[in-house]
Amino acid sequence: MDLSDNPLVSPAVRITILLRLLSEGFEDAFASRPDWLELPGVDLAELRQAVGDERVEQLTRSIGLREGEAYQAGGPPGTVALSEAAHNGVLALMGLSAMPPDVKVEETGDGPRFQVPEEWFITSSAGRAD
Q1: Which residue segment(s) compose the domain that 78 sits in?
Q2: Is the pLDDT of residue 53 over 80?
Q3: Residue 4 falls within a domain, yes or no?
Q4: Structural domain count of the chain
Q5: Residue 119 domain-assigned (yes or no)
Q6: What's the 3-state SS for the chain?
Q7: pTM of the full predicted structure?
Q8: pLDDT in tens, 1-15
């Protein structure tokens, strides 16, 4: 997803939203926090440039952030990856495009809460592919 021409989009914000979506998808699928989160090398480099080496190293220690080929979370129960729909939907979550009709939005005192469709996640249980 190339958003480099849009001055309103910080790479760190986009990457953070994708990582949070991924982590919450793992928690929903397996009722536990992931042991690690992966992101593509190009996004890891953008994140490092935006927040610095020290912050990336802190994220590596605290959430198991590491470089991979795609956005993926994992742990003993299995893995969760983000589908193309999730990558397209992140623009709506950032307020930069229309919200897909299958995303539910609940307004709360703390701001909007989003419920995204299961199709945004590709889940594989340990020991078998779903």
Answers
A1: 11-125
A2: yes
A3: no
A4: 1
A5: yes
A6: CCCCCCCCCCHHHHHHHHHHHHHHHHHHHHCCCCCEEEEEHHHHHHHHHHHCHHHHHHHHHHHCEEEECCCEEEECCEEEEECHHHHHHHHHHCCCCCCCCCCEEEEECCEEEEECCHHHEEEEECCCCC
A7: 0.81
A8: 444 455 567 788 889
